[in-house]
Amino acid sequence: MKFEGTCHCGNIAILLETDQDPRDLPLRACACSFCRRHGARTTSDPGGRARVGIQDRALASRYVFGLRTAEMVVCARCGTYCAAVLREGNRAWAALNVNLFLDPAFDRSAESVSYEGETAEQRIARRKRLWTPVELHEP
Fold first, then answer.
1. Model confidence over 60-92: pLDDT tens digits?
2. The domain containing residue 94 runs over which residues?
3. How many domains does the chain have?
């Protein structure tokens, strides 16, 4: 199955390919101030594939905060938070904001989660284990 979405203005596109029924994918509402303020609900499938495509790099913001272990990909034009990306060498993993998908399978409540107290190493290990391998495409 393929799920596609874009930020409000269309500059950033996300794609999730998964063999899982979308109703079985976890939906998380992270309790950090960034995710709360954006109303984000994210999902990932470690057995799937994801893509984040950016049309105009000048209109994409990569915001890093806290333990500085991931980049929040935000459209600088319309302000939409699209994905969190962890990079390590040539590899990358992502959690995608399902609010960009228009599929009704994602119209459900997300589980509230808090990652307070994790070390940077613990956070990176969790993300590699649970997030979706991602390809980043930008000019």
1. 999 999 999 999 999 999 999 999 999 999 999
2. 2-137
3. 1
